[in-house]
Amino acid sequence: MSSPVHPRPLSPHLGIYRWQLGNTLSILHRFTGIALALGFPALACFLVAVANGEGSYREVQHLFASPIGEFWLAGWTFSFFYHLLNGVRHLFWDAGLGFERRARWWSGWAVVAGALGGSVALWVWLWMGGRA
């Protein structure tokens, strides 16, 4: 004998929940993790080019110094700082700190500001030739 068909309840989705900072930061954390993972082959390519000599290094340097290469590297830099700072934020949560609504909101914006600030500061330092 078959059981009557009942519609299954849907998982909560955007039709139920409103979009919040927490959703955005969680998704951004996942995207930056993917960006970091995809950036490692480029880093490996750069290191192999350095090991292979001046000709190989010049070719890879030309690619990374192009507008598209610099845009990609800037995005990778932001991904690094964001993922690092958000990971520290999660470590505080693991210790039971920062779960209050205001603390979550402020720490989320602090992570974004820190990632942007760290990225800009690093690129300004690099464009200045690494001088303080």
Mean of pLDDT: 91
- Number of domain units: 1
Any idea of the CATH topology? Answer: 3 helical TM bundles of succinate and fumarate reductases
**Which runs of at least 5 residues are low in confidence (pLDDT < 50)?**
none
Helix content: over 70%
Q: How would a textbook summarize the main sheet?
A: none
Number of extended strands? 0
What is the strand content?
A: under 5%
Radius of gyration: 21 Å
Task: Please work out how many helical segments DSSP would assign.
Answer: 4
Order of helices and strands: HHHH
The helix-and-strand class reads: mainly alpha
At CATH level 2, the architecture is Up-down Bundle
Overall geometric form: extended
For CATH, the homologous superfamily is named as Fumarate reductase/succinate dehydrogenase, transmembrane subunit
CATH class: Mainly Alpha
End-to-end Cα distance, whole Å, is 79 Å
